[in-house]
Every structure is written in structure tokens, then in C-alpha cells.
Amino acid sequence: MTRARPPLVEARGITKRYGPTVALLDTDLAVEAGASHALVGRNGAGKSTLVSVLTGLTRPERGTVRYDGEPAPPLADRAAWRRRVACVYQRSTVVGELSVAENLFLGRQPVTPRGRVISRRLMRRRARALLDEWGVPVDETARAGGLSVEDTKLVEIARALSRGTRLIVLDEPTAQLDSRAAGRLFAHMRRLEEAGVTFLYISHHLREVYEVCQVVTVLRDARRIVTAPVGEMPPGKLIEAMTGGRGGPPAPPAERPRPAGPAPAAVRLEHLSSPRFHDISLTVGAGEVVGLAGLAGSGSHQLGAALAGLHRTTGGRAWIFGRPLRTGSVPAALAAGVGCLPRDRHHEGLVAGLSVAENITMPISGRLGPLGLISPRARDAVARRAIADLDIGTRGPAEPLSRLSGGNQQKVVLARALATDPRVLVLIDPTAGVDVRAKQTLLAAALRARAEGRAVLVVSDQLEDLRVCDRVLVMFNGFVSAEYPAGWRDADLLAAVEGVTPGHG
Amino acid sequence: MGDPAASPAGPARRAALFRVRDLALLPAVVLLVVVGAVTDHTFLERDNLINILGASSALGLLVLAEAMILLSGRMDLSLESVAGLAPALGFLVVMPAASGGFGTLWPAWLGLLIIPVAGACVGAVNAALIVGLGLNGFIVTLAMNIVLRGLLIGLVSGRTLFDAPAAFFALGSDTWLGLPLCVWLTAGCFAVAGFCLRYHRFGRAVYAVGGNAPAARAAGIRVARVGWAVLVVGGALSAVAGLVIAGRVGAVNADQGSGMIFTVFAAAVIGGISLRGGRGSLLGALLGTLLLGMLENLLTLAQVSSFWIQAIYGGIILLALIVARLTTGEAQES
Fold first, then answer.
1. CATH code assigned at B239
2. Closest CA–CA distance from residue B201 to any residue of chain A (Å)
3. SS3 for A176?
4. How many whole angstroms separate alpha carbon B22 and alpha carbon B20?
5. Could you read off the pLDDT of B267-276 as tens digits, one per residue?
6. Phi and psi at residue B62, in whole multiples of 5°?
7. Which residue among B14, B216, B219 places its CB closest to the CB of A399?
8. What's any one GO cellular component for it (chain B) (predicted)?
9. How many angstroms separate the CA of residue A451 from the nearest CA in chain B?
């Protein structure tokens, strides 16, 4: 790589804190023109903060950003930022009901030569020229909302390129794509690279790094760990950089007094299938914590949700303590003894306007008094016990849930899952977006549930969550692809989750 | 009112503070009473107050029905036509053919029973379309409102239905302990519904579904069933409201209830019921009803020209919204 001209973008010594949390610490990043750059790291490593600094959405506390050797424009000058860099986010930013051409020229539509009205003919013609220039095979008159995910990404890229930028940040572009659509997107990206576009590519999927990037930077714990050409970073090395510790000590097996004799199968699945997972057969014993690891598209979340009645299966059978489970019905799952902490607490977890006590007792509202009446005293007693058990930071059972912090809200959702005294506990992404102390409480609750003889299924791709498990099943593309007993090495597990073999390369 | 987060309030005091939002309309109500007392000396007389309560009863029942539906996160615009069509059906099946009835001459109790049943059936049809088929509730009930009004006009064909047994007018004309029966009925309905919404699992499920339906589902609440229940109960209550109107007027004609739905929504919303569901209380809805009932009475007493009464009525609803907004210090829709 020649240093003849300054990098396309260069960030130096970037530091950014959010309250007590350090999001980025003294981080450097330089993207050279023509060398697409991968940015990898676990959740919370600082990737999104770095991107928002690079795109001018966040002002760093310390450090400088330079574009083509010149200082970055002021944050308020959005047009200047748009000429330098554009980010294509996971969620599309096209207006679905408008045509592709209208989306490309949103807010800067070409006008007729004399008048001040929009010339639709001119707009269509310019759109066609733009799409042809970058080889985007999309009809400019098509409704944008009807495009495939990959075509939508290409339209967003073309829109950014038409503003003059040659640096495109892609934030997990393949998160919603199957492998064939992803392959088509990569083919387009390679062609764009040849035409002079440089990508900063953010992804969980390490395989993609090798497909489209020349250089990779690894972030971990808000710091830059390494920057190197991808040829010098085989998957094993990459994963070690992401997790820290060169083949480090195996995860310490927590003290695990296994129950004497064969544990009864609390959960038994046989050939369970749905559109999102296929032919899953597994058992979870009473008093056992089983981890289910997988990326967003692996089907692990849906498998956990299916047990809790939140996802409908299409084939196979499930038993809870020997009794057949009817999937797709939450009341049936609750009756069978399954409690669930759903994936996204804001979506399925909590009713923010209601009180802490009401949220906790929602699944047992029929048991708090005669004839379906709810005795406030009985309700608050249940809530107080849960508040004490899980150390929920609240002023009392009557406080509206919306006033609690994220970690305490999550504890309320866990309390709700435990309210029915379930024999099987399904925890989906239990520690997403919570602070360290809440994380400890939540994981300790999982271990306590095991000690009480419950079966626990932890669905997560966070290593901290999976460390409490007696064994971890890894899901990839809808199938269970590997199983690790406690004591796995981070690198091995992560490689299986990513779908790569750590040894090769 | 102070900032509750800043005050060293214990849980008990905090709980009390939350009720303040239910009473946001109280200043507006008090203001109206003062204005009424000053402008017209008959306003505070016993007969006039009873008159206000009687005149507000039907509106109150409709507001109660709509409030429950709104709290569950849905809406029903067809309630006003239910309040016209359901009592008309009850009248028609008991009236002799000579007075324009069907001539079936069913017994009075059966005719009276038909009224809430018809309302419940309309609610069930709405629920089948909205909850079952997943159609948009606004447009379904708007169309249903027009259909039901059309049916009523067709059935009545320009006549006025009045030749019915006395029982049909009892709610509006008879009194008990000095108050019209319809006032007792409305008060009773508010009390029972208010109690259930606060202390029964079904009532709390209504709030949970309105607040966050996916979370309610994940907690084992049967969301569809709650939707069916509020729409069916709302239809039945509206039918009874129609019977109250018929009793007070002494007849049913083709435009009974027409246009009331706007007043119903206004009363519910200025009473603090969120149009997005999950927030508000029946106490607030009741105050909203009383406010509008007093307003109507006051405008009549003040002999405002009937040509101007609508403009003033609407303007004062806007004013009440502003007062409620300022007293609670929070936006109704945020």
C-alpha cells in the first residue's frame, strides 16, 4: 500500500464515553482508497460508535477525523458529510411507496429547464443513467418497497455515489439475506470496488470479510486490537483477536454438582421444524442449563420462541416432562410449565405504562384472588418477593416500568417469566443491552433456577451468557451444527457460531 | 403539581400522584360550574342538576363503551348507529303493524332483550372483521356506521316509532329516589366497569393489550379474546344507551344517535383516554362526559342561538383539551 496520497478517511485517537461506559478508547482507523476495510468485533466492541463518529453523527471527546487529509466538516454541515461518506444501515432508508427514481433524487429532484416544477421525465432519465453507470440492475420506475433486500442496498449505494462519495459504510448488509442473495450482493460489491468505490464493511460473519475486503481491523472492549491485510489474518487469528487471549485458558467450569442418576428429560424435541429452523432433535434435562448459540439468521431465537409458544412450528414434536407440547400458543406453553424471557424486552417483554407489579404478575393474574379479581395486596406481595429475589432497583411495586433502567426492566421481564414457577425456563438474549451488574444478577438467576431443578435454555450469542451453561449447542443456518460441553475454548465456539473452521488458512 | 421524581415521595404518595392524571379535568369542570352559577341563577338548582345528569346518561354509556374499546387499543365509530338501530329493532318487534311495527307483537321483555343482543351482535361482526380478519378498525367501523344508519332509515322509513309498552320508556322517564332510572343505570355501569378495569384480570388485560399487545401475548393473555370482548360489550352498552335516548325522547326516529360519536370521542379524550390505548381511566371519561353535559345545558340556559351553538361547543372542547394539557403538564399523545 503506497502512502503517496492521504487515506480516504483517517481517524486518530478517537475516545468517546457514554456516561460511565467507555465506547471507544484512543482508537485509530485509516481506510485507504481502493482497499475495502472490514471492521469486526463482538457486540459492544465499539463498532457502531466508530461508524457514527466517521459519518459525523457523533462528536468524539478526543481525536480527529480527516477525509483525504483535510479536517472533517462541522457536524451540522450534513451535505458536506454526505459528499465524503455514506452509511447503508441494516434497516433500509428508502421510501417504500415511491419509485426507485424518486428515491434516488429525494429532496433534490431535477426541475424543468424553465419552470420550478419537477420534471419526472428528466428524473427517470438521470436515474437510469445513474443506475447504468454503477451497473445496478433495477428498474427505475419500480416501487422501491417491492425491491429485494439486496437491490434496496444497491439503490442506497447508488444514491450515495451520486452525491459524490466514494466511501460507503455497510452495516451488516447480509443480516437479512440468504447465502445466494449475499453472493449476488458481493459480486456487485466487487464490481463497484473495481470502479473505484471503497467499502468499510461491518459484519459478524467472518467468512464475508475474506470475500469482499482487503484489510481488516478488529475492535475489542472499545479498543483497536489489530489492523492487518486479510491475507495475514486467518480465521483462527481473527477470532483470537476478537475474543482476546491466544487460545487462552478454557472457560472455567463452574462448580457443577450433577444430579445423581439420569436426569429426567424436561424438554424433548424430535425433528422439530419451522420456516426458520429444520429437523431439530434435542433434550434438556431437569437441573441442566443448555446454551443455544447462533447468529441472527441461525434460527436459534425462533427455536427458543417456539418452546414458549411465540413461534409456530410446521413439523416434528415437542414434549415437556413427557407431555406433548402444542406450539404456537403461549397459554399452552405456560400450562405445560414453560416460562420465557422473550428476545426484545421493548417488543414482547414489557408494558411500559403499567406498574412493576402488574408486569411481573401478568401471567398469573388469574391466581391473585377469587373469580379473576386481583387483590392488590396479593399482587404487591408477589412483586415484592421478586424485587427482593432479583434485586430489582425500583421504588416499589407501584412504580411504572417506564421509569426503570434497562437492566432493571430486564429483571422485571425475568420475574414475569418466573412468576408461573415454570419447570422449563427459556431465556432469549437475556443480557442484551444491560449493564454488568444486572448481567451478573440475571445469569445468577439462571444458575439458581438450575439448582432448583428447573431446566434452563439460554439462547444467546454472548460468551458470558453461554459460560453458565452445562453444554452449548450451536445453530447455523437453521440446523444444530455442533455441541460443546462446558469448558470449551472461546475461539472454537465462536468459530462454530460464525460457521468457519478455526484451523484453516 | 411539582416534579414527582424530585420529591422524596414514598410508594404510597407516588401512587396517589398517578391518580392526579385521572382528575386533570376537574379544574375545567369547576370552572364551568362557577361560570354557570354566575351567568344563570337556575344552573345550580336541584332540578337543573338532575336534568344535566339525565341528559348526560346516554352519552355516558356511549363514552363508557368507547373508553373500554380505546383502552384496549382499538376504536369503534359505529356505536352511534348501534344506539339508533338496536332500540328501533326492539320497538319494531313489539309494535302492532298498524303503528308501523313488524306486527310480530312479541312480549315486551323479549323486545327489551333484543336491544342489547342486537348491539352485541353488531360488536361481534365488527370483531370478526377487525380481530378475525385483521381489517383496519377505523375503516371497518366507519363503513359499519353507514350500513347500520342505512338499515335504520330503511326500517323506519320516515316514521317515528312510539307505540311501545311503557317499559320501553321507563329508563328515560321513571325515577327512583328522585333520580331518573337512567342515571342510576349509568352510574352502576361506570362503577362495575371501573371496578373491573382496576381489580379484575380482564380489566388489567385490557390495559396490557392496549399498552403493548405483543408483550401481553407473550405473558399468556389471549389478545384476540380481549378484542372480541370489548367490541361485543361496547355494542351492547351502546344499544342500552339508545334505549335511554328513546326513553327520554319518547320515541325512536331515523337519526337517533346521529353525530354523537364525535361528542363521545371528545369526552373520552378530554377525560384523558389515550387514542393509542393503554392509558386513561373511567373516572376521567366520566368527568369528560359531565363536562360536555354541563356545557350543553349551560348553552341552552344561556339561550345561545341554535345557529351558533355548534361553533361554541367545539371551541370549548378545544379549550378543555388545552386546560387538561396544562394541568397535567404532559402531552396526551406523545
1. 1.10.3470
2. 5
3. coil
4. 5
5. 998 888 988 8
6. -65, -40
7. B14
8. plasma membrane
9. 25
Q: Which of residues 120-149 of A touch B (CB under 8 A)?
A: none
Q: A9-94+147-233 and A265-488: same fold?
A: yes
Does residue B223 have a pLDDT over 90? Answer: yes
Q: Do B219 and A362 touch (CB under 8 A)?
A: yes
Indicate yes or no: CB of B212 within 8 angstroms of CB of A374: no
Q: At A505, is the pLDDT very low, low, confident or very high (cuts 50, 70, 90)?
A: very low
Please check the confidence at residue A502 and state whether its pLDDT lies above 90. no
Interface with B, mutate which of A365, A402, A405, A410 (most B CBs under 10 A) = A365
pLDDT tens for each residue of B111-161: 999 999 999 999 999 999 999 999 999 999 999 999 999 999 999 988 899
Give domain limits for chain A: 9-94+147-233, 265-488
- Taking contacts as CB-CB distances below 8 angstroms, the residues of chain A near B11 are 395-399
Q: Which residues of B touch A378 (CB under 8 A)?
A: none
- Give CA–CA dist A266/A257, Å, rounded: 18
Measured CA to CA, the distance from residue B127 to residue B22 in angstroms comes to: 29
Chain A residues in contact with B217 (beta carbon < 8 A) = 310, 330, 348
State the best of A341, A344, A351, A418 to mutate against chain B, taking most chain B CBs within 10 Å.
Answer: A351
> What is the rounded CA–CA span in Å between residue A55 and residue A169?
9
Alpha helices in chain B (DSSP H): 11-19, 26-39, 46-71, 79-94, 108-127, 137-156, 170-173, 181-199, 201-211, 213-218, 223-249, 260-270, 282-301, 309-328
B157 neighbors B258 (Cβ within 8 angstroms): no
What is this structure's pTM?
A: 0.80
Distance CA B50, CA B184 (A): 12
Residue of A nearest to B10 (CA): A395
Is B219 within the bounds of a domain? yes
Residue A334's closest chain B neighbor by CA? B220
CATH of domain A265-488: 3.40.50.300
Euclidean distance between CA atoms B273 and A31, whole angstroms? 54
Residues 6+ apart with CB under 8 A from B318: none
How confident is the model over A38-63, as pLDDT tens digits? 998 876 788 888 998 999 888 899 99
For A283-321, letters b (16+ CB in 10 Å) and e give bbbbbbbbbbbbbebbbbbbbbbbbbbbbebeebebbbb
Give the residues across from A434 on adjacent strands.
none
Give chain B positions within 8 Å (CB) of A396: 10-11, 14
Query: ipTM higher than 0.95?
Result: no
* B331 occurs within a structural domain: no
Nearest to B199 among A351, A373, A396 (CB): A373
In whole angstroms, give the CA distance from residue A362 to residue B213.
12
Q: Which residue has the cell 372483521?
A: B129
Cross-chain Cβ contact A308/B201 below 8 Å = no
Q: CB–CB of B221 and A310 under 8 A? A: no
Beta-carbon separation of A398 and B207 below 8 A: no
CA distance B318 to B312: 10
Q: Residue A494 contacts by C-beta under 8 Å, 6 or more apart in sequence?
A: A239, A242, A243, A463
Distance in angstroms (rounded) separating the CA atoms of residues A79 and A320: 58
**Strands A21-31 and A9-18: what pairing?**
antiparallel
What's the total number of domains in chain B? 1
> Which phi and psi angles does A82 have, rounded to 5°?
-65, -30
Please give the pLDDT value at position B246. 95
The per-residue pLDDT for B17 is 45
* Chain B contact residues (CB < 8 Å to A): 5, 10-11, 14-15, 18, 199-202, 204-205, 207-208, 211-212, 214-222, 278-279
Q: Region A66-87: what's the mean pLDDT?
A: 88
CATH 3.40.50.150, applies to A9-94+147-233: no
The domain in which residue B287 lies consists of 23-326
